[in-house]
Amino acid sequence: MTGYASQEYNTSGGILLIELRSVNHRYLELQLKLDDNLRVFEAMVRELVQAKLGRGKVDCRLSLVRNTAAEGAPQLNHGVLQQIAENAKTAAQYFSHTQPVSMLEILQMPGVIAIDPLDTDALQSDLKTSLNNVLQDLIEAKAREGAKLKTIILARLQEIEQHVAKVKPMMPALVKQYQDKLTNKLNEASASNDDERVRQEMVLFAQRIDVDEELVRLTAHIEEVKRILNASAAAGKRLDFLMQEMNREANTLGSKSVAIETSQISMELKVLIEQMREQIQNIE
Question: Over the stretch 6-18, which tens digit does the pLDDT of each residue have?
Answer without folding.
Answer: 999 888 778 899 9
